[in-house]
Write a structure and sequence with these properties.
Shape: globular
CATH topology of the largest domain: Aldehyde Dehydrogenase, Chain A, domain 1
Strand order of the largest sheet: 14-15-16-13-12-17-18
Number of domains: 2
Number of helices: 15
Family: Belongs to the aldehyde dehydrogenase family.
Distance between the termini: 74 Å
CATH superfamily of the largest domain: Aldehyde Dehydrogenase, Chain A, domain 1
Bound molecules: nicotinamide-adenine-dinucleotide, the ligand N[C@@H](CC=O)C(=O)O
InterPro entries: Ald_DH/histidinol_DH, Ald_DH_C, Ald_DH_CS_CYS, Ald_DH_CS_GLU, Ald_DH_N, Aldehyde_DH_dom, Aldehyde_DH_Superfamily
GO molecular function: succinate-semialdehyde dehydrogenase (NAD+) activity
Protein name: NAD-dependent succinate-semialdehyde dehydrogenase
Radius of gyration: 24 Å
Number of strands: 20
Active site: 264
Length: 498
């Protein structure tokens, strides 16, 4: 049978990067129960391949393997772990084109964006390879006579990672590289929609000399697997990127084992445009901040709040710019937006648009008859959006932009903060006083001023409120996988001092 998987392996320079197994203890593994799930190309709905759905005892076997391997991995010097991670980084870079092809096939994003994600994902591996060499403890001036006090940093233990489908590679490396550099083994459960990027990373980790049992990829029914990972006491840290709904569930399920939790959850970013802004410059930036990854991005500018004095011109410029976006199969030529991940995502987007129109919003752009396939959703612009609408309250995770006019800074602060989310916010103005006032008042973990691009390895990425707990990347990202051990060396004699 000629399936897309045959086509895919022919398309790859290195077909061994396309694996249809789980990866446990350095071995490619079938499901013991023979259960499988198909993975689809969202652009065509063709089957790309299949993944095994593992049984409970296989997830436990991954934990056993990680436990056994931990002893040796943590005993390596930091510079030895750095060497392996840099080898992994080099291999990811060397196989960028294949990794991008796999990603576009399973996720749908245009090839240039997929190449960009590979680059982005690799950059976290290099960053944490270096950061692993700087996990300093401290010396504490002693208050106890004849004693020396201090701290050392130690790996927290086995770390489990549950990751989403919108960034199938970078959401793994941002977690796994930090944990590996800290000396922790990892067990990754990727989204079932996009498992093949994770499996290709496992193949490259093996080639880079990351030992058996240190990098594991488990696959299965998400609720079943996550329950086991959460309730397993030997897993000491759980890092999750995904929806706030599932994040809440994982907090509950991890309570009995009191795990370290890092949660990168949903966002509902406001994009605030001040009265002093050039409407064209701001509108072009807003289009870019809204429609990347077809709007399926936690940083997507969902609620665009424009000062009333420039609102109409802004809408005109925004409309012109977004109307030039092309929608199509990410594998073919230059397209700006690929498909949504599946049919349910299209249905959700349509229902959010319907809800807004029924409550008084105006649809300026958004003719769905132009969609090139069942899983595609043409970019929509809604104006007169209000807080009663789903498009304001929910993370739409689709190419649906909502614009609202405001009149004062205080009003826009209230509007921007009127959400359970607190991941990222954008401000466009050149007035330094306004920038400072808004930046301080916005209840968000990240605020980007006059820049669409805000992320990268040096950045402490993360949200407040119900957008999550902890920070990934930056100088503190590795701390999510480290414990601080305090020591008191007593009875040292007068030489100890402080
Ligand atoms: N804050 C960030 O850094 C960031 C980055 C990317 C995506 N996200 C968020 O991710 C969401 C989109 O991704 P998604 O649709 O894959 O999210 P999701 O929460 O549905 O799924 C995320 C992961 O959880 C698993 N999962 C699904 N249902 C589960 C259940 N009942 N029990 C346990 N695990 C389950 C999935 O298989 C997947 O691996 C959006 O909310 C987006 O904002 C956040
Ligand atoms: N674009 C984000 C991922 C959110 O979906 C990132 O850069 O991490």
């Amino acid at each position: 049978m000629t399936t897309l998987s045959t086509m895919l392996t022919k398309r790859l320079e290195d077909p061994r990067l396309f694996r249809q197994y789980a990866y446990i203890d350095g071995k490619w593994t079938h499901g013991n129960g023979g259960r499988e799930e198909a993975v689809y190309d969202p652009a065509t709905d063709e089957v790309i391949g299949h993944i095994p759905l593992l049984e409970a005892e296989q997830i436990t076997a991954a934990v056993d393997a990680a436990e056994a391997a931990f002893v040796h991995w943590r005993a390596l010097r930091a510079d030895e772990r750095c060497e392996r991670l840099l080898a992994w980084y080099d291999l990811i870079q060397a196989n960028r084109e294949d990794l991008a092809t796999i990603m576009t096939l399973e996720q749908g994003k245009p090839m240039p964006d997929a190449r960009g994600e590979v680059e982005y994902g690799a950059s976290f591996v290099r960053w944490f390879a270096e950061e692993g060499k700087r996990t300093y403890g401290e010396t504490i001036p002693s208050h106890i006579p004849n004693a020396s006090l201090g701290t050392i940093k130690e790996p927290v233990g086995i770390a489990a990672m549950i990751t989403p489908w919108n960034f199938p590679l970078a959401m793994i490396t941002r977690k796994a590289a930090a944990a590996l550099a800290a000396g922790c083994p990892v067990i990754i459960k990727p989204a079932n929609e996009t498992p093949f990027s994770a499996l290709a990373l496992a193949e490259l980790a093996e080639r880079a000399g990351i030992p058996e049992g240190i990098f594991n990829v488990v696959l299965g029914d998400p609720a079943e697997v996550s329950k086991i990972l959460c309730s397993e006491p030997r897993i000491r840290a759980l890092s999750f990127t995904g929806s706030t709904r599932v994040g809440r569930l994982l907090i509950e399920q991890s309570a009995n084992t009191v795990k370290r939790l890092s949660l990168e959850l949903g966002g509902n970013a406001p994009f605030i445009v001040g009265p002093d802004m050039d409407p064209k410059e701001a509108a072009y930036a807003a289009v870019s901040a809204k429609f990347q990854t077809a709007g399926q991005d936690c940083l997507a500018a969902n609620r665009i709040l424009v000062h009333e004095s420039i609102h109409d011109e802004f809408v005109e410029q925004f409309t012109e710019r977004m109307s030039a976006l092309t929608v199509g199969n990410g594998l073919h030529g230059e397209v700006d937006l690929g498909p949504l991940i599946h049919r349910q995502a299209v249905e959700k987007a349509a229902s959010i648009v319907d809800d807004a129109i029924s409550k008084g919003a105006t649809m300026v752009v958004g003719d769905q008859s132009q969609a090139p396939g069942d899983n595609f959703f043409m970019p929509v612009l809604l104006t007169n959006v209000t807080p009663q609408m789903k498009v304001w309250r929910e993370e739409n995770f689709a190419p649906v932009a909502g614009i609202t006019a405001y009149s004062t800074d205080d009003e826009v602060i209230e509007m921007a903060n009127d959400t359970e989310y607190g991941l990222a916010a954008y401000i466009y103005t050149h007035d330094i006083r306004r920038i400072w006032k808004l930046m301080r008042a916005l209840e968000y973990g990240m605020v980007s001023v006059n820049s669409v691009k805000m992320t990268g390895p040096p950045v402490p990425f993360g949200g407040v409120k119900q957008s999550g707990l902890g920070r990934e990347g930056g100088a503190t990202g590795i701390d999510e996988y480290l414990e601080t051990k305090y020591y008191c060396l007593g009875a040292l004699g007068s030489v100890s001092g402080s």
